[in-house]
Design goal:
- The model has no long low-confidence stretch (mean pLDDT 97).
- It is built from 15 helices and 23 strands.
- The strands form seven sheets. It has a seven-stranded mixed beta sheet with strand order 14-17-18-13-12-20-21, sandwiched between helices. A five-stranded parallel beta sheet has the order 9-8-7-10-11, sandwiched between helices.
- α1 crosses α7, α2 crosses α6 and α9 packs across α10.
- The radius of gyration is 25 Å and the shape is globular.
- It has two domains: 229 residues, Aldehyde Dehydrogenase, Chain A, domain 1 (3-Layer(aba) Sandwich), CATH 3.40.605.10; 185 residues, Aldehyde Dehydrogenase, Chain A, domain 2 (3-Layer(aba) Sandwich), CATH 3.40.309.10.
- It is of the alpha/beta class.
- Helix content is 38%, strand content 22%.
- The protein binds 2-aminohexanedioic acid.
- The site of 2-aminohexanedioic acid has 9 residues, from loops.
């Protein structure tokens, strides 16, 4: 029987092409392993090279397209995404597993980012400042870098690629895009939308395949000027090493071990709502997921009893069923890994309050589900409080004071997101000053960043860059300082204007 599975291709120099390897990988629905969405090429370094060359060639003309025009193309992409929001969201849920409501949120985030790019095209501003010399003009202008290598994860299949693609392109760069191998089809649809919106051939190149061959192929390619990567700190470190050696700009958004502080004066209903959403939304597969609760001893018993009540009622199942609250993990390997951390947690002496095993009842047998899990009696330095699990596992740490809570929160090598539940404005402001994270929420969950504000973290979460909002445009542009001397004579800075006052 010939295979009838649909095949999705690479996009190089404006053409949809197979990989030269002739190899393919299957893409399956994590909620139903028998449901094959299609096949994508397993590309190699040769495909990467062709993509980089196409991007280098296209850069020559794309960089000269006026930025507002480039922005307009992003605006058209926003309009197409909006038209196809429902279709894209359903595809996203089928490919990645998050519940449909969140799939829609993911696509909405990419629409918002494209709309922001439409405006940003008219505001790629530099600065004009007075010169220290007469008849001289000083300013900065922005310049694109060249070819950007964009490597995106599977947990936000449209939002995170959009954080990279839209600003990179609006700034005048061309790109080679490698989406996660768990979510290649949604990524292909994004690239088709960019093509339809009018991005010229060669400006966006898509290469499917694994992180080793294709991802590192892009990172190590001498024709690539910049790498933007979202994923694990381990891979981020390897990417940064290669970029460091080659003095290549690299922007990294890596792991998180986000904590919520629940103080003794907190609105407990709010804290419970936020904890459930932060820990078990997206099945815990967000870099911003709440994986630690740091709770004051006075309210702990009440907080936990309300939490357990609610967690027991969470409905697991395929994300396309709109009554479901928690979808599957993205693949079989993730179930094993999450369970491995749970076993380590048990061995460390933590007390399991609920969950702690794969969920396999009825329809759940078909996919990769894990029960929402809560551990009590976790210490800030324990394995459960230190390692990024990237699954529905929440660890509870008990503290006796605000200072102890902040210390526990900051006892992490990661620093992405944090939150504090308190009614005391002084504590809220102290937290704003003292947390070691790039994002802080007061009286809200650790998840839910908005596209038009900077997104990123401290410590091992990244290397100082911020995606989202205006700061993304700094990642994708060089600053060129320009002096125009209209005096008609040689004027020496720091010398000719210092003759009198020394
Ligand atoms: C991520 O988890 O990698 O702030 C991104 C949030 C989302 C983006 C998360 N808007 O939770």
């Amino acid at each position: 029987m010939p295979k009838t599975t649909s095949r999705y291709l690479n996009f190089i120099a404006g053409k949809w092409v197979e990989s030269r390897t002739g190899k393919w990988s299957e893409d399956r629905n994590p909620a139903d392993d028998g449901d094959v969405l299609g096949e994508v090429p397993r590309s190699d370094a040769g495909d990467v090279d062709a993509a980089v060359k196409a991007a280098q060639k296209a850069f020559k003309s794309w960089r000269l397209v006026p930025a507002p025009k480039r922005g307009e193309i992003m605006g058209r992409a926003a309009a197409i995404l909006r038209e196809r929001k429902e279709e894209m969201s359903k595809l996203l849920t089928r490919e990645m597993g998050k519940v449909l409501e969140e799939g829609r949120g993911d696509v909405q985030e990419s629409i918002d980012t494209a709309v922001y790019a439409l405006g940003a095209g008219t505001r790629l501003m530099g600065e004009t400042v007075p010169s220290e010399l007469p008849d001289k003009f000083a300013m900065t202008v922005r310049a694109p870098l060249g070819v950007c290598g964009l490597i995106s994860p599977w947990n936000f299949p449209t939002a995170i690629p959009s954080w990279k693609l839209f600003p990179a392109l609006t700034c005048g760069n061309t790109v080679v895009f490698k989406p996660a191998s768990d979510t290649p089809i949604v990524a292909t649809e994004m690239v088709k939308i960019l093509e339809e919106a009018g991005v010229p051939g060669g400006v966006v190149n898509l290469v499917h395949g694994g992180g080793g061959e294709v991802g590192m192929g892009i990172v190590n390619h001498p024709g690539v000027a910049l790498i933007s990567f979202t994923g694990s700190s381990e891979v981020g470190r390897a990417i940064a090493e290669s970029c460091g050696k080659n003095l290549k700009r690299c922007s990294l958004e890596l792991g998180g071990k986000n904590g919520s502080i629940v103080m003794d004066d907190a609105d407990l209903d709010l804290a419970v709502d936020g904890s459930i959403w932060g820990a078990f939304g997206t099945t815990g597969q967000r870099c911003t997921a709440t994986s630690r609760i740091i709770v004051h001893e006075k309210v702990k018993a009440e907080y936990l009893s309300r939490m357990l009540d609610r967690v027991k009622k969470l409905k697991l199942g395929p994300g396309l069923d709109e009554t479901v609250k928690v979808g599957p993990l993205v693949n079989a390997g993730r179930v094993k890994e999450v369970h491995g951390w749970v076993e380590k947690g048990l061995a460390s002496g933590a007390k399991l309050l609920c969950g702690g095993k794969p969920a396999t009842n009825g329809v759940l047998k078909k996919g990769w589900y894990y029960e929402p899990t809560i551990f009590d009696n976790v210490k800030a330095g324990d394995v459960l409080a230190q390692e990024e699990i990237f699954g529905p596992v929440l660890s509870v740490i008990t503290v006796r004071s605000f200072d102890e809570a902040i210390d526990a929160l900051n006892n992490s090598r990661y620093g992405l997101s944090a939150s504090i539940y308190t009614r005391d404005v002084n504590r809220a402001f102290r937290a704003m000053r003292d947390v070691e994270t790039g994002i802080l929420y007061v009286n809200s969950s650790t998840i839910g960043a908005e596209n038009h504000l900077p997104f990123g973290g401290m410590k091992d979460t990244g290397n100082g860059h911020r995606e989202g909002g205006w700061t993304a445009y700094d990642i994708y542009s060089e600053t060129r300082t320009v002096y125009v001397d209209y005096s008609g004579k040689l004027q020496r800075a720091q010398i000719d204007n210092r003759k009198v006052d020394g």
